[in-house]
Amino acid sequence: MDLGIKGKWALVCGASKGLGLGCAQALAAEGVNLLIVARGAEALEQSAMNLRAAYADKTGAEVLFCAQDITTVAGREAVFAMRADFDIVVTNAGGPPPGDFRDWDREAWIKAVDANMLTPIELIKATVDGMAARGFGRIVNITSSAVKSPIDILGLSNGARSGLTGFVAGVARSSLAAKGVTINNLLPGKFDTDRIAATVKATSAKTGQSVEDIRRLQQAQIPVGRYGTPAEFGQVCAFLCSQQAGYMTGQNVLVDGGAFGGTF
């Protein structure tokens, strides 16, 4: 299927590895031009080189990169100094650390909200009017399955990402929708990334179980019997960015291998 987005420009955050990189790869495969952002300069530059090598000749995708912390004002200013207008924005920031809510002070909460709620809102605010003026826009916020099924040790993430979910529910149904701008949230379950490694390690420390046993048990509880891969997550993201997904907005799309047991 041709997704109809060849030649569009996308800003993809947290794209040096993991789910962000999976989204960047899927978009580049469709011929979308990329500005990828992450904090780690070395890993980001390597990912940009790999994307160019894989897709520049094949699809014509141009790949720029900006090593910045997108959760800071200075980081966002640096990104938008490179390019101001985007047709597609994929917001993504590393989740807050797991732990016991009794140990989190106000600073920990503010940091979580700033990264996982306020930063996506700032990126939306900076780009949607330009999208609306051009008659096309796709914003995909990578959040978490925890907004539907909270995880006890991820309280910071549960709270901050749920706040973003509530905000998107309103703004996605504003006048922007009639101007061709869609805003959706993509909710990953357990994917084989650094994030799952960190949470498994935390669970191991808390319970005394081995990392290997926890991974085996977690995968057995997922109906498809395994963790997801960044590549298949990226394909779902690319579809939400497509012309064909123009009638989807304000949705929370769960990609979790069937782990969430609810009907709605």
What does this entry look like structurally?
It is a single chain. 46% of the residues lie in helices and 14% in strands. It contains eight helices and seven strands, in the order βαβαβαβαβαβαααβ. Helix 2 links the parallel strand 2 (33-38) and strand 3. Helix 1 packs across helix 8 and helix 4 runs parallel beside helix 5. The mean pLDDT is 95.
List the helices and strands and how they pair.
Blueprint (H helix, E strand, L loop, with lengths): L8 E5 L4 H12 L3 E6 L2 H19 L3 E5 L5 H10 L5 E4 L14 H29 L2 E6 L12 H17 L9 E8 L5 H14 L3 H10 L9 H11 L11 E4 L9
Family: Belongs to the short-chain dehydrogenases/reductases (SDR) family.
Protein name: SDR family oxidoreductase
Low-confidence stretches: none
Largest sheet: 7 strands, parallel
Number of helices: 8
Strand order of the largest sheet: 3-2-1-4-5-6-7
Structural class comes to: alpha/beta
InterPro entries: NAD(P)-bd_dom_sf, SDR, SDR_fam
Pfam families: adh_short_C2 (PF13561)
Protein name: SDR family oxidoreductase
Organism: Rhodoferax mekongensis
Summarize this structure as a short list of keywords or feature phrases.
seven-stranded parallel β-sheet; 264 residues; SDR; NAD(P)-bd_dom_sf; single chain; alpha/beta
Summarize the structure.
By secondary structure, the protein is an alpha/beta fold. It has eight helices and seven strands, in the order E-H-E-H-E-H-E-H-E-H-E-H-H-H-E.
